[in-house]
Write a structure and sequence with these properties.
α6 crosses α8 (about 270-295). The protein contains eleven helices and 13 strands. The chain has about 400 residues and is an alpha+beta fold. The model has no long low-confidence stretch (mean pLDDT about 95). A six-stranded mixed sheet has the order 5-4-6-3-1-13, with helices on both faces. A four-stranded antiparallel sheet has the order 10-11-9-12. It binds alpha-D-galactopyranose. Alpha-D-galactopyranose binds near residues 39, 176, 178 and 344.
């Protein structure tokens, strides 16, 4: 199946896998792209992501017993993967179903236990492992479905928190709140300016004039589980502790650049200084970028995106040759307003703001440079900013 799918096709597939589609409902949750504010969310800083119109479709129905039966049109070779409400543990063989299972488990931990199992068929058109949050999309989608089927009293913001909880505790990735929040709270044509320390947020209209958001996918696969994600997080936590011996802050996000530089000598390791420096400066850049966008200073916004990439490359060291090649090639194309890696890094995607008239040239030049240097193709997507989860 290609990227586009109708409700009818999904119900038909569901019937093919589970016998019939009687009583089954169709749902959707988006993916997300972060415009700026990277690796700040677990440092009490700000982020500026938006939900996309691509995402994960789900067809679901309650069962009368306690069985869980999962099927993904993206991994048809795996067939139906079974589990039960009485065995909510992560297993390697359970593969992608550890994500929906984790969310069912997390609801249970919060005293919201459905007494019946379910059938769930998924189809995602987010390139997976791309850094556009296919896993958070599945988590929020599952939470949304559970709320709809079992009537649990939770807000969309709760769905984000439960999704993150499941990812942290069930799937062992110490991620922040950005992805699940951006997905659960998405709003068409708006980015979400979120303070991760307080969860206060505002919506900012994405006014890009004659430009569009273009995603370049490096096709270098990675999962957060095997990346250095948790290691970066620990480095920041240790740096914060060292700083706290001199300055009274709860997170790196509370520091401005000057205060950070003053106390940086408290951090005992040069790598940790650079990690913390990124977290502090990236947070300040995010504040500036949102202000610039509000004032229609799109060029300034682009320059801040570029500076974000440099900091992620040199101080945070989460880019790698694939992402650097895509971004550095993009910077050279006239009509590119800004370009940077997005998401966790270590592979995945870049996000660029490109004048419409330059998109074709952008894809050609960046695509060729990438193939020459890396040896395989990157994929390009001109994306739209969409709404949060919903029933279709
Ligand atoms: C991943 C995590 C997020 C965030 C980003 C980096 O996407 O899930 O919580 O930390 O990386 O900004």
């Amino acid at each position: 199946m290609d990227g586009k799918v109708t409700r009818e096709q999904l119900l038909e597939k569901f019937a093919g896998v589970f016998g019939d589609a009687e009583g089954a409902k169709v749902y959707f949750a988006p993916g997300r792209v972060n415009l700026i504010g990277e690796h700040t969310d677990y440092n009490g800083g700000h982020v500026f992501p938006c939900a996309l119109t691509i995402g994960t479709y789900g067809v679901a129905r309650k069962r009368s017993d306690r069985k869980l039966r999962f099927y993904s049109l993206n991994f048809e070779g795996l067939g139906v993967i079974e589990s039960s409400l009485d065995d909510l543990k992560p297993y390697k063989e359970a593969d992608w179903t550890n994500y929906p299972k984790g969310v069912i488990w997390a609801f249970g931990e919060k005293e919201m236990k459905g007494e019946q199992g379910l059938e769930l068929l998924l189809f995602g058109n987010i390139p997976n492992g791309s850094g556009l949050s296919s896993s958070a999309s599945v988590e929020v989608l599952t939470g949304f479905i559970l709320r709809d089927l079992f009537g649990f009293d939770v807000t969309n913001q709760d769905l984000a928190l439960i999704g993150q909880y499941s990812e942290n505790r069930f799937n062992g990735v110490n991620c922040g709140i950005m992805d699940q929040f951006a997905i659960a709270m998405g709003k068409k044509d708006h980015a979400i300016f979120l303070d991760t320390a307080t969860l206060e947020y505002t919506y900012a209209p994405i006014r890009l004039e004659d430009a569009k958001i273009v995603i370049a996918c490096s096709n270098k696969k990675r999962g957060l589980g095997d990346s250095k994600y948790n290691e970066r997080r620990e480095e920041c936590e240790t740096a914060l502790k060292e700083l706290q011996s001199m300055v009274d802050v709860k997170s790196l996000g509370e520091l401005d650049e000057a205060t950070f530089e003053k106390f940086a000598p408290m951090i005992k390791d040069a790598n940790r200084v650079r990690r913390a420096r990124h977290a502090v400066y990236e947070n300040q850049r995010t504040l500036e970028a949102v202000e610039a966008l509000k004032n229609g200073k799109i060029k300034v916004f682009g320059q801040l995106m570029n500076a974000s990439h440099v900091s992620l490359r040199d101080d945070y060291e989460v880019t790698g040759i694939e992402l650097d090649t895509l971004v550095e090639a993009a910077w050279k194309v006239p009509g590119v307003i800004g370009s940077r890696m997005t998401g966790a890094g270590f592979g995945g995607c870049t996000v660029s703001i490109v004048k419409e008239s330059a998109i074709e040239e952008f894809i050609r030049v960046v695509g060729e440079t990438y193939r020459d240097r890396i040896g395989y193709d990157a994929d390009f997507y001109v994306v739209e900013v969409g709404d949060g989860p919903r029933v279709l």
